[in-house]
Amino acid sequence: MPTVVIVGAGAAGLWAAAVAARRGAEVLVLEKTPRAGTKILASGGTRCNLTTTLGPREAARLFGREGEAFLRPAFDALSPADVRAHVERLGVPTVVEPELEKVFPRSQRAVDVRDALLEDAEGAGARIRYRAGVRELRREGSGFRVVAENGEVVADRVILAAGGRSYARTGTTGDGYAWLRGLGLRVVPPVPALVPLLSDAEWVRELTGIALPHVEARLLDPADRLIARRRRPVLFTHLGLSGPGAMDLSAPVARAAMSGPTTGWKVALDLLPDVGMDALRDRLSDASRQGGGPTLARALGETDLPARILAAACAQAGLPANPRLHEVPRKLRNRLVDALKGLRVPISGTLGFDHAEVTAGGLALDEVDPTTCEVRSVPGLYVVGELLDLDGVIGGLSFQAAFATAELAARHASR
Ligand SMILES: Cc1cc2nc3c(=O)[nH]c(=O)nc-3n(C[C@H](O)[C@H](O)[C@H](O)COP(=O)(O)OP(=O)(O)OC[C@H]3O[C@@H](n4cnc5c(N)ncnc54)[C@H](O)[C@@H]3O)c2cc1C
């Protein structure tokens, strides 16, 4: 049976260790920090959103076109339902937050998930060496020499699961990229993703604390082209926009920021995503003809939109807060409709790697066989999890990708 060295005892490393050891491989995990699964412990506000209720195809689609094509075999091999079932088999019952398709442990304790995965790996026979930061990876004969802080090991196969470079305080400092480049492999420049967005507009800061649970956020580039859209809650903060709806749009902003200031980038918030543009125009037009001169708030009827947000939309249209609609000429009414269906928030960047839930960029997907996660030009070397050029959206998708790629690599590496 082959000896398999796994670098990193995070989500993907623990999963791969259990699968490879169960299949009879001799497995050694080298972990830089004194503990396993630190990001699992921090995840989902320490509740760990471990996967999604979406099916494998729908889940893969959330990684963009290239990501979807790459992840299909992995999600077919280990679907979100398989992840959930396995974690339940390990003794961690789960619950669903249906509106956002999220799966959590019933205990709402991330530590239960981490402990279960760790016990699974160790119970299957994998050994974990802590404080064993890997410094170098060399090919040696048909295998590898792995140089760690406290010694060297040789291995027939190596699974790299060292993660990205976000939240460096959890141990992920982007070490894997240098090893991959050293092997002549293409690494797509890493950028922070799933991270809050910055805005330097004063009026945005004044809305701090306002949460908009039912909006659609659209990311527009300086030429007003639609880059991405997401219907998820958005939160105004003293720095800009947070919440899944904003964070899900952050990777293109971070990429743009690499080549200079992000002047002209904005998020357009559709405050009434269930009401069509024409229907809203008609509604405001009808209201403007009614006696009594109803205000904007009256005309909108049942809405959970805070008055301050409506006032911001009015200001963007050049109107006072909550105007009486019979006093608003048609041209301005149309501007108001535009602002309600696309309140424009200027974006000046992201909060960066320190606050990013994941790293976008990483080992280019065309370097890797998607059916095995083996590097095409380096037989015996597998790359999994966040170290790959994969980034999805918030909702358990990052763990799903980490577990599924780990599953494929471990099955193949243990043969
Ligand atoms: C605050 C926060 C909340 C999150 N919440 C969620 C969530 O609810 N749901 C979700 O799906 N995703 C969530 N994520 C993202 C998710 O945690 C990661 O995508 C996932 O952990 C990636 O798994 P991985 O195994 O590739 O990397 P990691 O889990 O980051 O593991 C990498 C491991 O490699 C080790 N390592 C690094 N360098 C070396 C080295 N040189 N030698 C040895 N070991 C090394 C690290 O110490 C670490 O233990 C969250 C992330 C953060 C930061």
Ordered list of secondary-structure elements with their pairings:
Layout: E1 3-7, H1 11-22, E2 26-30, H2 38-46, E3 51-52, H3 56-61, H4 64-77, H5 80-89, E4 94-97, E5 102-105, H6 110-123, E6 127-129, E7 134-140, E8 143-148, E9 151-155, E10 157-160, H7 175-182, E11 187-193, E12 197-198, H8 202-205, E13 211-212, E14 216-220, E15 226-230, E16 234-236, E17 240-242, H9 244-247, H10 250-258, E18 266-270, H11 277-289, H12 296-300, H13 307-316, H14 330-340, E19 343-346, E20 349-350, E21 358-363, E22 368-369, E23 374-375, E24 381-383, H15 397-413
Parallel strand pairs: 1-2, 1-10, 2-6, 10-24
Antiparallel strand pairs: 3-5, 4-5, 7-8, 8-9, 11-21, 12-17, 12-20, 13-16, 14-15, 14-18, 16-17, 18-19, 22-23
Quaternary state reads: single chain
The CATH class of the largest domain, by name, is: Alpha Beta
What is the CATH H-level superfamily of the largest domain? FAD/NAD(P)-binding domain
Percent helix range = 25-40%
Task: Return the structural class.
Answer: alpha+beta
Shape: elongated
At a glance:
The protein has helices at 11-22, 38-46, 56-61, 64-77, 80-89, 110-123, 175-182, 202-205, 244-247, 250-258, 277-289, 296-300, 307-316, 330-340, 397-413; strands at residues 3-7, 26-30, 51-52, 94-97, 102-105, 127-129, 134-140, 143-148, 151-155, 157-160, 187-193, 197-198, 211-212, 216-220, 226-230, 234-236, 240-242, 266-270, 343-346, 349-350, 358-363, 368-369, 374-375, 381-383. It is an alpha+beta fold and 415 residues long. It has 3 domains: 3-191 and 360-413, FAD/NAD(P)-binding domain (3-Layer(bba) Sandwich), CATH 3.50.50; 196-271 and 345-350, Beta Barrel (Elongation Factor Tu (Ef-tu), domain 3), CATH 2.40.30; 277-341, Helicase, Ruva Protein, domain 3 (Orthogonal Bundle).
